[in-house]
Amino acid sequence: MPEDLPVQDPTPAPDTIPVTPERTLYLGTWSTRFWAWLIDIVLVILFLNIIRGIFEPFWTLPFLWDISHWEFFERWFEMFLIFIYWTSMEGFRGQSIGKMVMNLRVVNRDGSRISYTTAAIESLSKAFLPGPFIIVFLLDCLIGWLAMPGTKLRVFNRISNTLVIKTDYREPAGVVYVKEKE
Predict the structure, then answer these.
(1) β-bridge mates for residue 108, sequence order
(2) Please, what is the Cα angle at 39 between 105 and 148, to 5 degrees?
(3) Whole-Å CA distances, 10 to 7, 13, 17, 18, 54
(4) This prediction's pTM
(5) DSSP character at residue 64
(6) Where are the domains of the chain?
(7) 41: which of 33, 117, 126, 175 is 20 to 30 A away, CA to CA?
(8) How far is CA 79 from each of CA 38, 112, 119, 129, rounded to the nearest angstrom?
């Protein structure tokens, strides 16, 4: 056997090993996420108007967009309610009502369900909507969109280690639905 021939290693290089994904997650688009957010904002404003109507005899709350009449406590009260909405909905199901309508869900990076703590971190920037605090949410989205192109992540998605994915509401395997004529 000639000694000048190189010995070949039978194991392939690490970068050539084919990886088969256990599960495929389809990331939600920015436009779909925007519409889900807009649906949620409309619902939150309607809810805040109900709260405003209940408290009106005792306490006058300015409207969300009426920044000139806001006081410190009112601003933080409404931001707290917005924060509770997103944290509780996304912590419980991974979906706010807007995400349910648009077939989106917030999950951990491995596709598993998020906890309430993770939902709270992910929802922080969305809670800062009244007044000048909306800049926090806008920066969160813009930095994610421009600085992390292709990832479809906001900064607070990156911090909370979450993704927004498309959901698929197909019939379960092995189940057939029979629809009778009416």
Answers:
(1) 162
(2) 55
(3) 9, 9, 13, 16, 75
(4) 0.72
(5) T
(6) 30-165
(7) 117
(8) 16, 28, 16, 7
Q: In 3D, which of 104, 87, 93 has the Cα closest to residue 25?
A: 104
Cβ–Cβ contacts within 10 Å for residue 90, how many? 25
**3 state SS of 89:** helix
3-class SS of residue 163: strand
Residue 162 DSSP SS3: strand
Residue linked to tokens 């993704």: 163
Six-digit token pair at 80? 């707290």
Question: Between β-strands 104-108 and 162-166, what pairing exists: parallel, antiparallel or unpaired?
Answer: antiparallel
Q: Which two tokens stand for residue 114?
A: 């998020």
Q: If we measure between CA atoms, which residue out of 16, 7, 39, 29 comes closest to residue 151?
A: 29
